[in-house]
Amino acid sequence: MLALLDGGMPTMDGFELLARLRALPTTATFSHLVYLGWGPRPAGAGALELGANDYIVKPFAPAELVARVRRLVTG
User: Fold this and answer.
1) Which whole-number Å values give the CA distances from 52 to 32, 57, in the listed order?
2) Is the pLDDT of residue 14 over 90?
3) What is the largest CA-CA distance in the chain?
């Protein structure tokens, strides 16, 4: 399973959601890909430190997103 998380969501951002998903037994083993609207540092490093498997920075090419998703779901 894969969860795509927006790092800049209102109310609860993707980082808080990522931490909550990693803490739940039912979603802890999912792959988590965070997409960010700002530069990769420090936001990308923060996503990885919270347990994201990968991150991508907006704007991104659809082909790049597809490649990252494929890598995460196929191992």
Assistant:
1) 5, 14
2) no
3) 33
